[in-house]
Design brief:
By secondary structure, the protein is of the alpha/beta class. Helix content is about 45%, strand content about 15%. It has one domain (about 1-265): Rossmann fold (3-Layer(aba) Sandwich), CATH 3.40.50.1820. The chain has 14 helices and eight strands. A hairpin with a 2-residue loop joins strand 1 and strand 2. It is globular.
């Protein structure tokens, strides 16, 4: 991966392909979760694909402290500026979805479309259950260590992941263990403090694709409820239920996810001058 120093922060990134820019913001635990998706020809042959490791993941700068959603969004914004991108399609998974929403609020001129893959938001009647689950995961991290905590967290979001993860993304589990301090000490607390709701959603006028894994509904009430609320709150949103997938949609069913993203972006094109 290439490296960029933006506002004194080093971010590892990949920038490949030609066409309208699509930037992908990963969530907690697996920094390269978008890699299987971005190798799909429906995206790779048609778009300029940009992905990066957020602070505290792999070889990007360590966090050193809790990083706010606004700071995470600013990192993405300054990286895109470094790459000469003035407007882009933005894809965010889980905690990365929360960052993508913050980016749309803070820099609406930069965000042409939003694709939210089960954004991690503290909303609705399921919020107390979600809050308790996250607090429990932090406690497990402190008591049992990163390997156990990462395994349990992945299992809750992708049951039976052990059978598939190493094949789909070799080395991903060990890297997740290495990055666990960021996942549990930075990303989880920021999610717990999240304040995104209907008022904020009503300000986001860009086209939004809100994606829900077909099998996520059975995992936790927050997945379906968050998707339903976003579809009701966002002024210009459409939904997609991705078959054969739980929370790590882009690794579980990368082909159908890539096809859906390519179709969504093609229906909401940028002009060449706006894309940079």
């Amino acid at each position: 991966m290439d490296r960029a120093v933006v506002d004194g922060i080093t971010l590892e990134y990949e920038d490949s392909g030609v066409g309208e820019p699509v930037v992908c913001i990963h969530g907690a635990f697996i920094a390269d979760a978008f890699r299987p998706l971005l190798s799909e020809s429906s995206l790779a042959d048609r778009y300029r694909l940009i992905s990066y490791h957020r602070r505290g993941y792999v070889h990007s700068s360590p966090t050193g402290k809790t990083v706010s959603l606004a700071e995470e969004a600013r990192d993405c914004r300054t990286l895109l500026s470094h790459l000469g991108v003035r407007r882009a399609h933005v894809v965010g998974h889980s905690f990365g979805g929360a960052i993508a929403l913050q980016l749309a609020l803070d820099a609406p001129q930069l965000v042409h479309t939003l694709s939210l893959l089960e954004a991690a938001l503290m909303v609705g009647e399921s919020a107390p259950l979600f809050r308790q689950a996250l607090a429990d995961s932090m406690q497990r991290y402190r008591e049992a260590g990163p390997r156990v905590a990462v395994d349990e967290s992945l299992q809750k979001r992708w049951p039976g992941y052990q059978e598939h993860l190493e094949h789909v993304l070799p080395g991903a589990f060990e890297q997740a263990v290495a990055d666990a301090a960021t996942s549990f000490a930075v990303d989880v607390p920021v999610t717990l403090d999240g304040r995104f709701g209907e008022v904020e959603a009503r300000r986001i006028m860009q086209p939004v694709l809100a994606v829900l894994g077909e099998k996520s509904v059975a995992l936790h009430p927050r997945f379906a409820e968050t998707n339903r609320l976003l579809l009701g709150w966002l002024p210009n949103a459409e939904g997609l239920i991705l078959p054969h997938a739980t929370h790590f949609l882009q690794m579980e069913n990368p082909h159908d996810m890539a096809e859906a993203l390519a179709d969504f972006c093609a229906r909401h094109t940028l002009t060449e001058s706006a894309a940079g």
